[in-house]
Known about the structure:
By secondary structure, this protein is mainly alpha-helical. Helices cover 57% and strands 0% of the residues. It contains five helices and no strands. The chain has helices at 2-12, 19-28, 35-45, 50-61, 83-101. Helix 1 crosses helix 2 (19-28). The chain is elongated and about 75 Å long.
Amino acid sequence: MSEIAALVLCKLGGKAGSADDIKAVLEAAGVTANDDAITKLTGDMDGKDVNDLLAAGMDKLKNVPMGGGGGGGGGGGGGAAGGAEAAEEEKEEEEEEEAEIGGGMDMFGGE
């Protein structure tokens, strides 16, 4: 896949997209070039125009349904049991956090 991306980058940059061009782009990006994949790609692309191939691919993609159908609804609320206990625990946690934060210093080191 990186070989194809390198080929497209070569074409966008006005290069021929030869095996050496593709290898140079990959190495500049820090990717180890796969010579077999580059040879296969250049052989498959011989005599073909990248713009025509991209246009044909986009034409095929127009019929593919894209986008989400939306997720399922959120989970229902919990039962009535235990609601008061959870609220008490939250209040205790908030009080503890506030006590820990205070210390005479603000976020920037001032007092």
